[in-house]
Structures are given as C-alpha cells and as structure tokens.
Design a protein that fits this description.
- By secondary structure, the protein is of the alpha+beta class.
- 28% of the residues lie in helices and 26% in strands.
- A hairpin with a 2-residue loop joins strand 4 and strand 5.
- Helix 3 packs antiparallel against helix 4.
- It starts with 7 loop residues before the first helix and ends with a helix.
Length: 203
Amino acid sequence: KSGEPDDEQLELLGGAVLGLGWSSERDRFIFRFAINVSQRKRKQPTGEDVTLETIYMLEGARLSKRICLSVVNSIFDPIGFLTPLTIILKVTLRRMFSKEFNLDWDDELDRELHKQWVDLLRMFVGVVLEFDRSIMPITATGRAVLAAFWDGSDEAFAAVIYAIWLGLNTEEPLEVRLVASKARVSADWEKNTVRQEMNGAVL
C-alpha cells in the first residue's frame, strides 16, 4: 500500500506494479533506463545492459536498425512521463527508415548515424527518474483545473494534460501535476505543420 515501506512482496514483483517501477514508501513511480546494445538472438539481447562503468562500450558497439528499435521499444511508459525524451529517440529512429540511408535490419549504421545514436544513448545510461503517482498533492485543499496543451511540427506532434491545484479561497496555483502526455512521429510523407498541430489536438 502507499506509504508502507518497500517490502519483499514488492521485490517479488521486480519492484514494479503493472510494469511500472514503484516505491510504495514514497508513493512514486521509478524509471530506470535499460540500455542494451548487444546483438540479438531470438529477439533477446546476448549481453549485459550498459552501465556507467561500461559506457565506453557504446563507442565500439555494432548498432543497427534492429538494435536501435529494440532499445526504443524497451522503454515502457504508458502514462507519458518520459515523452520529452522518448520522442527524440523515435524521431531519430524514423530517419533510419528513410530512403536516404536505405538500411536493412541488420546493416551497421554509418559513422554519422552511429555517433548520433551513441550521443543519445549516453544520456540515458544510469539515469533514474521519479514521478509522483498521485496527481493530488497532500497539501491540496481546493479544486483542480485541467489544462491541456498540444502542438505539432514536421517532425512530431504531441499533447499533454496537467492538473493545476488551486487553494480553497484563492485562484493562485498551489501545485501542478502531470496527468498524461502523448507524442507521435509525423508521417514522413506529410510535411504540413498546420495538420500536425491539429493531430496534436486529436491526441
């Protein structure tokens, strides 16, 4: 239960509930990025995850479309806490599927793409992020106002919803909590900024 110390029952679940890392004591979701760039065999990585001690391995890693896609898909974030980060990976991934590079699934990336992916993956190695599970602050005494924002570009479109908690007798915001967010990569054949902005509203 929320507020109880992390116990053996939570550890038996791998420290996660419904696929999301969770600390019952702090009542917070925990995201630990698992970056594994080893070769795949039967869709499973053959090596260990990259750590801060082995981050140098990224430079010599043999990266391909298959491996990069596997890394991106390994990040489970149904609520959208990590959307500002994951959309960067997805936009970069889309470039690999363009006619500009004409890559097969297991073709090694050229020097430009390899460096781009190494720089991106470095940002995630060893990173641990935490977010409050509840969208209602403990100090909340008033009501919540939902605020939605959306936008789009030729690269991607996104939408986000925040809960803004107000005081009982004031219109001043006390705290803002993320409710959910989503982002999608724009279609490569549809370069229309206005349409992408509307797609963001549809999300």
